Amino acid sequence: MNLIIGDSYSYIIVPTLAAPPYIYTLISGSVPVGMTLDLEVGKITGTPTVLGTYNFTLYATSLSSGCCGTASFELDVICPALQLLPATLTSPDFISQSYDVMITASGGQLPYIYTVTSGSLPSGLTLNTASGLISGSTEPVGSFNFIITATDLYGCIIENLYQIVIQGCVGDITLSPTLSEISSGQPYSEVIQVFGSAVPPYTFSIISGSLPPGLTLNTSSGEISGIP
């Protein structure tokens, strides 16, 4: 008989061809861990907590007739059918995009532990092992394949193969090529103009060189301001 680990059960073993009441003796073996055997009534109850196959043999005696006999039993404690959702992951549209997707296991016993057991997430993304949340900011362009495994309280597992594809920029961007003249010691403010088919909002960064001392770049608005 198959028992699902973590589920509660109650069975009474009833002899045949002899009149009750009965008394039972455990000759060999044991019931699953987490369950008990009441030898006065032949009742097995409890919640199995360890996977495996359990064999045991009982000797039963009819107190009214004196008839007796033995029987062997096998109980298999197995995992339930677990599920991991979503089955596939959405991919970000482009690099440096915020990413936030929850992987959720069900069918087993809480809590679950989530791990990447093959491959790797794109750089910039992390997996919360307790909640299953994949989050971060996508960085490299490319196709990334990885397996996420969820393990429940009793060691039952479910795994899915996922893929995240990160593309480069969507649309073209050009920036205003020149800035107005600047005077030392005078307040300065100018916003970098963005042209093209890409979709705002934008993030601005300096990839080479440096601003004059006293000036700063607002990475959200593209404004250069300060007193040089």
Molecular structure report:
The protein is mainly β. The chain has 3 domains: 2-78, Immunoglobulin-like (Sandwich), CATH 2.60.40; 83-166, Sandwich (Immunoglobulin-like), CATH 2.60.40.10; 172-228, no CATH class. It is 0% helix and 47% strand. A hairpin with a 5-residue loop joins strand 6 (52-62) and strand 7 (68-78). The chain is rod-shaped, with a radius of gyration of 33 Å. It starts with a strand and ends with a strand. The model has no long low-confidence stretch (mean pLDDT 91).
Can you tell me the CATH class of the largest domain? Mainly Beta
Content-based structural category? mainly beta
> In CATH terms, what is the architecture of the largest domain?
Sandwich
Shape descriptor reads: rod-shaped
Radius of gyration: 33 Å
Task: Looking at this protein, list some descriptive labels.
228 residues; three-stranded antiparallel sheet; Immunoglobulin-like; mainly beta; single chain
Q: What's the topology here?
A:
Blueprint: E1 2-4, E2 9-12, E3 22-29, E4 35-38, E5 43-46, E6 52-62, E7 68-78, E8 83-85, E9 98-102, E10 104-106, E11 113-119, E12 125-127, E13 133-137, E14 142-151, E15 157-166, E16 173-175, E17 188-191, E18 194-196, E19 215-217, E20 223-226
Parallel strand pairs: 1-7
Antiparallel strand pairs: 2-5, 3-6, 4-5, 6-7, 8-10, 9-13, 11-14, 12-13, 14-15, 16-18, 17-20, 19-20
